[in-house]
Structures are given as C-alpha cells and as structure tokens.
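The instructor's notes for this session suggest beginning with a concrete chain rather than abstract definitions. Hand out the sequence below and ask the class to guess, before any prediction is shown, which regions might be ordered.
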Amino acid sequence: MPASAAGPAEDSPEQGQRGIVRSVLSASALLARFTGGRRDLRLSDLAREVGLNVSTAHRLLQTLVASGLLEQDAASDRYSPGPVLIEIANGLLTADRTANTADILTALAARTGESISLGARINGEAVVLLHVPSSHQLRFERKVGDRIALHASALGKALLAWAPEPADDLVRSLTPLSALTAETVTTVRGLTADLRATRDRGYAVSKGEEVPGIRSVGAPVLDSSGVAIAAVEVAGPSDRLRDGDVAEFARILAGGAGAIQHVPDADLLF
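After discussion, reveal the predicted structure:
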C-alpha cells in the first residue's frame, strides 16, 4: 500500500504561529518591562505584568540572567538590566553621532585632557555605561560594563549623594565598606559625612580611595526631581589632576551632565 503524502506539520504549542517561538516572545515581553529606566523589579510583579505564571517567568528570567541580558541581585532577588543589555543600549545610543552622549563625553575628555566615564547605580554598584580615554599615554581607563565600588570612586559617590534614599540608610545598605586602598573611607559615619559634603559642594571627589595615585571628580546627571539617574566622572593621575584643577573640572563636568540630561533617548542607558 503506497504511503500517503505527509501534510504540513502542525505548529507545536511552543512554536505557536509558524516561525514564532512563544518562549522568545515571552522573554522579549519580560525584557520590555525594563524600558524607561526601570530596574530592581520583583519576580511576582514581572510575571503579573506580562501575564505569565510565576514558575514560567522565573525560568525565563534565569535564562536571561545566564545570557547577561538581565542580572539578579543576590540580596533582594530583584532583576535589573544586565551588562549585555547595557552594551546593546550603548550601541544604539552611540550610533547617532549628532549631539549624543558619546559626543559630550568626548568633548569633556578634550577639555580636561583626562579620561571621562558615565555610569549608573545598579544593584549596589556603579556600572560603567560609556568611557572615553584620555589622549595621554599614561592614563586611567575603565571599560564599559565595569563594576565599581560606590563608596570609593567619585562616580559612585556622585550617584550616592543625589540618591533618593536617606544618606545614613543608603550607606548602611552598602556595608561592609571594603578598603580598596589605605585612603578608602570604610566607616558608615565617615562615608555619610563625605556624601553630605559632596552634596553641599555640588560634586564628588576621590583621591586615591579607589586606586592609589588616581584622583577623580564626579557630577550627577539628574532627573526632573533632582535624583541622580547617572553620573559623569573625570579621572587621572594625581600628579596631573591636581588640587587646583578640581573646582574647574567640576564646573566642566556639571555642564556636561546638564547637556546629557537633554540628549534625546539618553535614558536608554539609564
């Protein structure tokens, strides 16, 4: 008996409509919940917002974490954009060469002669989103995606000083404060006082607190309510970035931070 010709295979439940994989759609829906600067989201909230049961949402989120698209805070179990997602956003932003954030950072590096970084606070750390190195052969460099101690860098202290949380509570949440160098502030009282002084003067300073021999100055990028959504930092060798340069560099950074606030789609990074 001749075999009958096989008809077209039916789509599997996983595949849904021909060529469309439902789990990928669900994962994409989860990623979309992090637009508009959202971070530190709970599993239950994400599952509810995209219409998934908790176990399915958890499995997809863990896959996204493993891929680097998301990251999960070990203490709170909440989810935030991961290094790969940040890198994608960075690529989208810097592709537009007309008055964008990368151009502003490049101009800051040219004016100061030192390396410039832009970062945001994610899961208890400062994460580098963009970096423009100094043209000097001897220079301080960071890499996009680097995790930086908030309490030791000017970038981190600018993020902390203009955070929405009370300074005392925020500093306690970071303990223990690791001593990265002999100059690192490692007490709650000391760092709280430093952050208040930072807020009063309008900019953050780190002198050898993160890396010996490196001085950095940081300024916040503020939202409409005055909360830091990011910070910009200039950093270089202390024998070149001297005490007399700090106030002027802070003024230059403040201008750059203000310009970043008005860049179209800059919030893709934050």
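Then share the key points. The two ends are 66 Å apart (CA to CA). Strands lie at 70-72, 79-81, 115-122, 125-132, 147-148, 204-207, 214-222, 228-237.
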